[in-house]
Amino acid sequence: MPSTTAELLDLLDLEDLDLDLFRGRQPHTTWQRTFGGQVLAQALVAGARTIPERTAHSMHALFLHAGRTDLPMIFDVERIRDGRTFSTRRVNARQHGRTIFTAELSFKNREDGPEHSDPMPDCLPDPDRCPTLAQALEQMFGRPMPTVKEWDALDVRLAGDGSQLVDPNHVTHLSLWVRTTASLPDDRVVQRAILAYISDISLMAGAVMPHLGSVPSGMVVNPASLDHAMWFHRTAEADCWMLYDQVSPSASGLLGFSMGRLMQDGKVIASCCQEGVMRLVDVNDLDASVTFPLGRGT
Predict the structure, then answer these.
(1) Is the Cα torsion angle 216, 222, 227, 233 positive or negative in sign?
(2) Dist. CA 90–CA 179, nearest whole Å
(3) Is the pLDDT of residue 295 over 50?
(4) CA distance 242 to 198
(5) Domains of the chain by range and CATH?
(6) In this structure, is the dihedral angle defined by the CA atoms of residues 28, 33, 39 and 40, taken in order, positive or negative?
(7) pTM for the whole thing?
(8) So what's the pLDDT on residue 152?
(9) Residue 214 and residue 295: Cα distance in Å, rounded?
(10) Which residues are catalytic?
């Protein structure tokens, strides 16, 4: 994972290989598979490079295979449609000749119109009074969480005092404060790519949390994202505090479904949803890239 915001920005600076063909680098990491948020963010940048006069407003993606961290990612953009207001792009990410990810993105012209937004939740403590996510997880599980500590490019804090990771009144509700640890350029593509990156840090955790009590000793839940959809509603400043409010309305058949919304300055700036598989694995076989190794590891 990138250790600084500057390194995260470097990941988004794709190399132009040919018309509509780009290469994305990988960060130095102990993870065994590429972080999904990285692929989402790089794919958004690749699509935006082909339509710079319009802004991404939605993304629908499928994770087909785990990405390798020792190989660069090739992004091939297909120009599906360019209309008077909207443009559609399909982005395929490949490694070693195999497509591991595909996404369709929609871009549009700037237009003014009717506007409304849900308000921010009431009575949330200020981020400076909240524990980091790594501290909250360590308190909950009684051991350090090194994979979470690798998110040094982000400042992620539990929107609470740390005594409960999940709202006790709604067992599938998880709220985080999040921002980058350093300033970002005033670039709408970069800002939205960072939102896409952030959107994947914890959605599956919300689906897994209610079932931790049923995980057998020595086992952990190994979550893996299958698909991801995101909508960008407003301009955001991802280097300022945002509330990432998440809920998981359903889990069944080893599939967990979660929804989230990013909020800033009292308004919803982006929404997302994700489905993923939640398999139990022996703690000794745990993939080091799992963001939330959840369960009874001892």
Answers:
(1) positive
(2) 29
(3) no
(4) 10
(5) 5-110+126-295 (2.40.160.210)
(6) negative
(7) 0.90
(8) 79
(9) 9
(10) 200, 225, 274
